[in-house]
Design brief:
The chain has 90 residues and is mainly α. The protein has one domain (2-85). The protein is 80% helix and 0% strand. The chain contains 2 helices and no strands. It has helices spanning 2-35, 52-89. Helix 1 packs antiparallel against helix 2 (52-89).
């Protein structure tokens, strides 16, 4: 009985950790997307702000790539966990 309780606690811990990590990564991606639209030029004294567009696009692309990667990772783990549950239940 105790072994089963430990096993259930391990599964709950894994789920909670995945939700926490996913939330933190999505918040970081959102922050990068928001940073790409913030204020004036980042380095106005360098190159007469010709780097500004590249910095903004890089931040936007990094934020969107983090979001896309997180969604793919989350869907992959849900599908693989579901597959393993059905595989072991037979």
């Amino acid at each position: 009985m105790q072994r089963k309780q430990v096993s259930v606690l391990m599964v709950i811990g894994k789920i909670a950790m995945r939700i926490l990590v996913t939330g933190l990564v999505l918040i970081f991606g959102f922050w990068l997307i928001m940073a790409s639209n913030m204020g004036p030029a980042y380095l106005p004294e360098v190159c007469d702000s010709c780097l500004d567009m590249w910095i903004r696009m890089t931040l936007l692309a990094a934020g969107l790539l983090i979001w896309l990667t997180t969604i793919i990772w989350l869907v992959w783990t849900v599908l693989s966990t579901t597959y393993q549950l059905f595989k072991h239940s037979k």
